[in-house]
Specification:
The chain has 23 helices and 6 strands. The protein is mostly helical and 500 residues long. The protein folds into 2 domains: 94 residues, no CATH class; 363 residues, no CATH class. A two-stranded antiparallel ribbon has the order 1-6. β4 and β5 form a beta hairpin. It is globular. The termini are close together.
């Protein structure tokens, strides 16, 4: 009789998933996002679709500088899927507001010369609607990305290393601040790694179809994802089977899944910008943005040394400067490179392609931002390296210290405001100094649940710290319980051998 080991570890696996999902959602949902250009561009489109039955922004075009103009009409210049997905929570909350006879969403915006929306203030109804859209799309995307990463790692590692890798990704990298506001980076990441998880080598046909839809959806969340999704799509085609016929069928299945999503995005582009492949970036009115996108391919040229260093170790946007725990991920990846499977290598290649494109972008620093925001969708490619690093027990104290510092720094960015200035040192000069000076939720219309309950400044973060202590303790217990457990793929292989 073969012993079913999977049943023995089911409680630990379930506890780990619940712990991660609930903690990530609670942390993301604690922050009320600021009314800054990028989230307001998407929110204005969401509002227009629901309230006006239109994709033109109307009067709400003055609530953002991230906008495009065609003829005499204004549109969001962002990829449309996050805004369209946000229509669901918008409708639910708006119907509730109407039932309670609440005021209609409204804003006030200040201009400076030709620059619109230098400061935007939302009334309470609009603030709550933006919050609901952000928690659902970006916060929900973070939960999905975390759990997908956990499952993806469980194919390769035990429960303990997998839990550590997924938890660090969600709570100690720039994934966290971008999961608190209506950006497209985190949902794009959830879509990409959902596709990788589903379309394992020789997966059933229906999984390849869903994977194709998810890869297309990632591009619909962030246009720059077209480059790495092409790499990952090529990998999925190559692993569809050993023969050219199998791979051809795999390509057809991916295309079948992607087609409806591509057609929906193309229709939006046709209506808004006059062509299926025309985006808002071809119709920018901001002189700086227009000049930048005029060069190269949509503003992307050859990678520059400044961009490469700035995205990795630079003091204002450097990934490893803001989140040093990811250095351990790089060390783990390099040390075990020969043992990594094709899916992990393909994800890392996708991250490399995305990084090189970002380093060649005319505004490689991403404007007012926390870290290299364009890399956020593929940061889960580094999670296997984190899982490997966790397996080196003598180094765990240093690893945990780096994870704690990285996590606290990401929380500082989320608490002060993820839109760090375009110049200057970011960690101490903006995030930590702002936090210690009491500039909590300092950007326009930003808040947090503690402040909404009447707690002042730093005191408003105390409930969050309590939540984090309890949540991390739960995650830690789950990780320790699964320290010595075999990964699913290894366990299945050993059970098969024992049965035979």
């Amino acid at each position: 009789m073969v012993h079913d080991a999977s049943r023995d570890d089911q409680p630990a696996r379930t506890s780990s998933a619940w712990a991660l999902g609930l903690v990530v959602l609670a942390v993301c949902g604690y922050f009320v996002p600021a009314a800054t250009w990028s989230p307001m561009s998407r929110f204005a489109l969401t509002r227009a679709v629901v309230e006006d039955g239109s994709i033109t922004l109307g009067d709400w075009a003055d609530a953002t500088g991230d906008r495009a103009q065609r003829d005499d009409r204004w549109y969001s210049d962002k990829a449309p899927l996050p805004a369209l997905a946000a229509t669901i929570p918008y409708v639910v909350v708006r119907l509730t507001q109407r039932a309670l006879d609440r005021e209609a969403p409204a804003f006030e915006a200040q201009r400076r010369g030709d620059l619109p929306a230098v400061r935007v203030s939302l009334n309470r109804s609009a603030q709550r609607l933006l919050y609901a859209c952000s928690v659902t799309v970006s916060g929900g995307g973070a939960v999905a990305l975390t759990l997908v990463t956990l499952l993806w790692l469980r194919r390769r590692f035990g429960l303990g290393p997998s839990t550590f890798g997924a938890a660090v990704l969600a709570l100690a990298t720039p994934v966290l601040p971008y999961a608190t506001s209506l950006f497209g980076h985190v949902p794009a990441g959830a879509a990409v790694f959902g596709a990788l998880l589903l379309a394992e080598p020789r997966a059933p046909t229906r999984r390849y179809v869903v994977a194709g839809a998810l890869l297309a959806a990632a591009v619909g969340c962030e246009y720059l994802m077209a480059l790495p999704t092409a790499v990952l799509g090529g990998y999925l085609v190559f692993t569809a089977g050993p023969t050219m016929r199998d791979r051809g069928l795999g390509a057809l299945r991916l295309a079948a899944g992607a087609l409806p999503v591509v057609l929906a995005i193309a229709t939006y582009h046709q209506v808004a910008f006059g062509g299926p492949f025309e985006t808002g970036y071809s119709h920018l009115t901001n002189a700086q943005f227009r000049a930048g996108h005029a060069g190269g391919f949509m503003g992307i040229g050859a990678p520059t040394a400044e961009g490469l260093f700035g995205l990795t170790f630079g003091l204002r946007r450097g990934l490893f400067y803001l989140s040093p725990i990811l250095l351990a991920a790089v060390v783990g990846t390099v040390a075990r490179w020969r043992q990594l499977d094709g899916a992990v290598r393909a994800a890392l290649l996708g991250l490399l392609v995305l990084g090189l494109a970002n380093a060649g972008y005319y505004m490689w620093w991403g404007g007012a931002a926390t870290g290299p925001r364009h890399l956020v969708p593929l940061l889960a490619a580094l999670a296997p390296g984190l899982a490997i690093a966790w397996s080196w027990r003598p180094g765990r104290p240093l690893l945990l210290a780096a994870a704690a510092w990285s996590g606290l720094t990401m929380l500082a960015f989320a608490a002060v405001g993820l839109e760090a200035p375009e110049t200057g040192e970011a960690v101490f000069g903006y995030a930590w100094s702002g936090l210690l000076d009491g500039r909590v939720s300092a950007l326009s219309s930003a808040s947090n649940l503690g402040m909404l309950l009447g707690l002042p400044s730093l005191v408003s973060l105390i409930p969050l710290w309590v939540l984090l202590v309890l949540g991390v303790r739960w995650i830690w217990r789950s990780a320790r319980e699964g320290d010595d457990e075999q990964p699913k793929a290894t366990r299945e292989a050993s059970e098969t051998a024992e049965a035979s």
